[in-house]
Design a protein that fits this description.
This protein has 3 helices and 16 strands. By secondary structure, the protein is of the alpha+beta class.
């Protein structure tokens, strides 16, 4: 089930008139234009940043960033809003493009600058790190948000997460996921995390034998 999304007014690229789009329960989309005969707005497309993150484009405009979490859910961040989707179909319905994940902008975005929080790499372009004066600051976890002032926290670095079916790896997971399932980390490198992950799953198999 998709999350409820508030009505938003969006300017038409053709004349500057307004369109109103409603996302209803179940993900159906209804668009009403105040002026008939307008040209169709540019198709929304994705440009890959990493294995689980994309820049969202509409024509020459960059709208925001789409992220996929370890459980296959999606979060769309515009800088003002954070919208959650359960799966790819809800994302495609929201953007009105059924080929969103197959017809991507050809060249992946090449980023030369990496962001680190307390020595741990962040898989996000513009993180807002929690400093020591923040009430939710954690000495053991390098926490950050993707929207300034948000109370949805992410943990920089690499982690092993203890899901019911086995230990899984994650880079920059939500703090809520770490707390819910249990974890080891943060690790500063992916290789270090994967070595520990193999050992944890080996020990788990022995326990279950």
């Amino acid at each position: 089930m998709s999350f409820k999304i508030n009505l938003q007014n969006q300017p038409s690229t053709a004349t500057g008139s307004l369109k109103r789009t409603t996302i209803t329960k179940g993900g159906s989309q209804r668009t009403n234009s105040k002026v008939s005969g307008l040209k169709e707005m540019s198709k929304t497309m994705l440009q890959q940043i990493s294995d689980v993150a994309w820049l969202v484009h509409q024509g020459e405009e960059k709208l925001g960033i789409l992220n996929q979490d370890i459980q296959g859910h999606y979060t769309y961040i515009t800088g003002r809003d954070l919208i959650k989707f359960d799966d790819e179909d809800e994302v495609k319905t929201h953007f009105g493009n059924i080929t969103l994940f197959t017809e991507k902008i050809g060249t992946p975005l090449q980023t030369t600058e990496k962001f680190f929080i307390r020595g741990h790499e962040v898989d996000y372009e513009m993180p807002f790190a929690l400093d020591k004066d923040h009430p939710d600051y954690d000495e053991a976890l390098p926490l950050y948000t993707k929207i300034e002032g948000s109370d949805v926290y992410y943990a920089a670095g690499f982690y092993c997460i203890n899901f019911e079916k086995g230990w899984k790896h994650a880079h920059g997971p939500k703090l809520a996921t770490l707390i819910k399932y249990g974890f080891e980390g943060p690790f500063k490198t992916e290789d270090e995390m994967r070595q520990r992950l193999k050992l944890l799953n080996r020990l788990r198999r022995k326990v279950n034998e």
